[in-house]
Design brief:
The protein is mostly helical. Among the domains are: 4-63, Winged helix-like DNA-binding domain superfamily/Winged helix DNA-binding domain (Arc Repressor Mutant, subunit A); 87-164, Arc Repressor Mutant, subunit A (Orthogonal Bundle). The chain is 40% helix and 8% strand. The strands form two sheets. A three-stranded antiparallel sheet has the order 1-3-2. The two termini are 130 Å apart.
Length: 310
């Protein structure tokens, strides 16, 4: 089955007009992923197998140069593995010199005490992956050796030692027997003491004060006093308001002062030759009332004057 790039190039070769990425998608895989087609077209444009031009914000593609065949790689020297240096090399040499297995803690203490257990474990994992060491695991315990037999023998010894050094299990404590439920508590009376109880003494009441009695009511009036009171009540006139002797009686002092001031101003105005005309009730409203009673239409007002009287 041809690759997607080959199918895109074959489809573009049949087109006479440039096509967008969506046109390519609909022409080859209508249900494909547009992002995958855009990625393939970008790689083909970079390789020169298609040519692209941008119109606005959209790119259009046409067929380009044919793909160039990959040149065969010239034969070179065989790749050799770099010699191991550092912690991994020292661990490999240490395991080759001993005919027994070791734990991670023993290897760390013998080879690189300054390294952490995780660093030593990572170096041993690299050695096991490269077949320079072998590992035996049981649970959380792991042993490493030059051969698998040495690692397995050391693991069996470590497991046996852990079982021998395991502390004896503590005896299981038995649950205490349930206590019998006690009956209702009985109230015990205190034994009566033989000594007589001391009588309680109350505090003395405060001395009482003699309250004065109510004064006696006066005696009723005699018939002679009652007759004198009735005679004085009949002869005494009832109080009446004083007759008004002036038009300003009952007026406040402020109003009286205002009236005096107005009278003085009028007198001064007349002394200077002024004349005051006292008007009575106007005849305008009287005439209107008479015309309304006699059913006479009102006269039209005269123009050019503001006098309402005839």
């Amino acid at each position: 089955m041809s690759t997607r790039a080959e199918r895109i190039r074959a489809w573009l070769a049949t087109q006479t007009l440039p096509a967008s990425a969506r046109d390519v998608l609909l022409g080859i895989e209508p249900r494909g992923d547009i992002n995958a087609f855009c990625s393939v077209l970008a790689q083909m444009e970079k390789a020169g197998t298609v040519q692209a031009g941008k119109v606005g914000n959209r790119r259009y593609y046409v067929i380009g140069d044919p793909p160039k065949p990959k040149a065969p790689r010239p034969p070179g020297p065989a790749r050799t593995r770099k010699p191991m240096t550092g912690r991994a090399n020292r661990l490999r040499e240490f395991l080759q010199q001993h005919d027994r297995g070791f734990t991670v803690a023993e290897l760390r203490a013998a080879v690189d005490p300054r390294a952490t257990s995780n660093q030593v474990s990572a170096s041993l994992h690299t050695l096991v992956k490269q077949k320079h060491a072998h590992r035996a695991i049981q649970g959380r315990l792991a042993c490493f050796g030059r051969t698998a037999a040495l690692a397995q023998a050391q693991l069996a010894a470590e497991v046996a030692g852990e079982r021998a050094a395991a502390p004896t299990p503590k005896p299981v404590r038995q649950a205490p027997a349930p206590k019998a439920k006690a009956g209702p508590k009985s109230r015990t009376k205190r034994p009566a003491s033989s000594a007589p109880k001391a009588a309680r003494t109350r505090p003395a009441a405060p001395p009482t004060r003699d309250l004065p009695r109510a004064l006696p009511s006066p005696p009723p009036p005699s018939p002679a006093a009652r007759a004198a009171i009735d005679a004085s009540a009949r002869t005494t006139p009832r109080g009446r308001p004083a007759p008004v002797s002036c038009g300003l009686d009952g007026v406040s002092e402020r109003q009286r002062q205002a009236s005096d001031r107005i009278a003085a101003d009028i007198a001064a105005f007349e002394a200077k030759g002024g004349r005051i005309q006292r008007l009575g009730p106007t005849q305008f409203f009287t005439r209107i009332g008479m015309e309304a009673a006699n059913h006479v239409p009102p006269r039209a007002p005269r123009t050019g004057t503001t006098d309402l009287d005839d």
